[in-house]
Amino acid sequence: MERKIKLIWDFKGPDALKFAEHHAIHLKEYVHAEKRNITIVDFQQLAESHSIAYMIVNDEQMRQIRDILKPHRGELYEGS
Predict the structure, then answer these.
(1) Distance between CA atoms of residues 23 and 45, nearest Å
(2) What SS3 state is found at 65?
(3) Which regions of 1-80 does DSSP assign to beta strands (E)?
(4) Beta bridge partners of 44
(5) The pLDDT of residue 79
(6) What angle do CA 51, 71, 28 make, to 5 degrees?
(7) How far apart are CA 28 and CA 43, in angstroms?
(8) What values do phi and psi take at 26, rounded to 5?
(9) Are 56 and 4 within 8 A, CB to CB?
(10) Regarding beta strands 50-58 and 41-47, do their DSSP bridges make them parallel or antiparallel, or are they unpaired?
(11) Which of 5, 6, 7, 29 has the fewest CB atoms within 10 Å, i.e. is most exposed?
(12) Measured distance CA(73)–CA(9) in Å, rounded
């Protein structure tokens, strides 16, 4: 099974959730415009003032997408 990476953009402050939700929209637009084979793009509230937008990519895609979209961080994705 191919290794998957969760690319993460962090947002902090009172409007963090709104920013993360909006950023996820732009990530989905990128996936569609570039015809990428990426099915998981979403956002999540981690705390009252910390939310993230993220996309799950395979190891092969990670470097190119990282260099183009400049996520704040990444981690191994263990989901399905």
Answers:
(1) 13
(2) helix
(3) 4-12, 41-47, 50-58, 73-76
(4) 52
(5) 81
(6) 75
(7) 11
(8) -65, -35
(9) yes
(10) antiparallel
(11) 29
(12) 7
Would you give per-residue pLDDT tens digits along the chain (80 residues)? 689 999 999 999 999 999 999 999 999 999 999 999 999 999 999 999 999 999 999 999 999 999 999 999 999 999 86
For residues 55, 10, 25, 74, the Cα torsion angle rounded to the nearest 10 degrees is -10
Which pLDDT belongs to residue 2?
85
Q: Which residue has the tokens 């569609």?
A: 32
- Domain spans in the chain, listed from the N-terminal domain onward: 4-76
The pLDDT of residue 80 = 66
Q: Which CATH code for domain 4-76?
A: 3.30.70
Give the list of residues 6+ apart from residue 20 with CB closer than 8 angstroms, or none: 9, 11, 43, 44, 45, 51, 52, 53
